[in-house]
Amino acid sequence: MNGRAEPAGSQWYDAEAGPLVRPYAMTGGRTRPGPNHVRFDLIALVVVDDDATSSADESLLGPEHRTLLALCRCGKQSVAELAAGTDLPVGVVRVLLGDLLEAGHVKVSRPVPPAQLPDERILREVIEGLRAL
């Protein structure tokens, strides 16, 4: 230690306590992403925008924003994967992604809704047709 005796109870956390910055501090107290209140589903796919602004603009971002961008550079990531990769709550990740989307750093795409997928019967007929060839 530092050689000084610390008063009892002065160290109220340990290494397993996690980050000392509360989620509301990371988001500035916001709970909804961006001024347009964009909805980020857990399966929405996020990727870095190739036409994004320079890396000098990224230096103005917070560490959590930069971490999300680094994860997105590896390829398309779902919101759930980004939350797991950053060890942040999904709500916080959604707000931070809203910031990145608004600033033009990322693009968001949504998977095809199940209602628009082909019927299982049609897929089976296609498979049977291919096998018949």
Structural Rg: 22 Å
The number of helical segments is: 6
- Spatial separation of the terminal alpha carbons: 76 Å
Strands, count:
3
Q: Which secondary-structure class do the elements indicate? A: mainly alpha
Strand order of the largest sheet: 2-1-3
Instruction: Output mean pLDDT.
Output: 77
Q: Could you state the order of secondary-structure elements as H and E? A: HEHHEHHEH
Strand residues, percent: 5-15%
Largest sheet: 3 strands, antiparallel
Give the helix proportion (percent range). Answer: 25-40%
Sum up the overall morphology in one term.
Answer: elongated
Unreliable spans are none
What does it look like?
- With 133 residues, the protein is mainly α.
- Helices cover 40% and strands 8% of the residues.
- It contains six helices and three strands.
- The protein has helices at 23-26, 55-58, 63-73, 79-86, 90-102, 120-132; strands at 45-48, 77-78, 106-109.
- The protein has a three-stranded antiparallel beta sheet.
- The radius of gyration is 22 Å and the shape is elongated.
- The mean pLDDT is 77.
